[in-house]
Amino acid sequence: MSVEKDPETGQVSGFEPPWFYAAEENSLEEGKLLHVEPGGRNVLLLKAEGEIHAFINLCPHARCPMDRGTLKEFILTCICHGRKFDVRTGECLNDSLQLKRYDWKIEGGKVGIKIE
Fold it and tell me: In terms of Cα–Cα distance, which of 95, 87, 81 is closest to 56?
């Protein structure tokens, strides 16, 4: 059994694979894009309209980092080519592309991401 540690405190996170510690819940602010690496994966965490969302941090169009884009209400726009994604569904509003979504959960104020 592997043990996941909180990178900020070095404490054991309480998550066991396939769940990995990603961030403190209180570090997620409305409209803020947060790049994290739970389980060594490149993940984007965000809060839009009060809801948390987790996606791969790469645009499916040209693999640009999504955390460098912008979020307005529930529309995430890629900085590279302006692709717009609905964070409620992960669907692209410009074409048939889709952002890969990750399952997430909160335990004891910590956000965990399911990596399989």
Answer: 87
User: In this structure, what token pair is assigned to residue 36?
Assistant: 């994290």
* Domain extent for 43: 19-114
- The answer to whether position 2 is within a domain reads no
User: Which residue shows structure tokens 């694979």?
Assistant: 17
Taking a C-beta distance cutoff of 8 angstroms, is the pair 34, 25 a contact?
Answer: no
The yes-or-no verdict on residue 79 having pLDDT over 60 is: yes
CATH at residue 94: 2.102.10.10
**Are 18 and 114 within 8 A, CB to CB?**
yes
Domains: count for the chain: 1
pTM of the model: 0.88
The model's pLDDT over 26-73, given as tens digits with 9 standing for 90+, comes to 999 999 999 999 999 999 999 999 999 999 999 999 999 999 999 999
The rounded distance, in Å, linking the Cα atoms of 60 and 96 is: 10
Lookup result for tokens 């996606």: 55
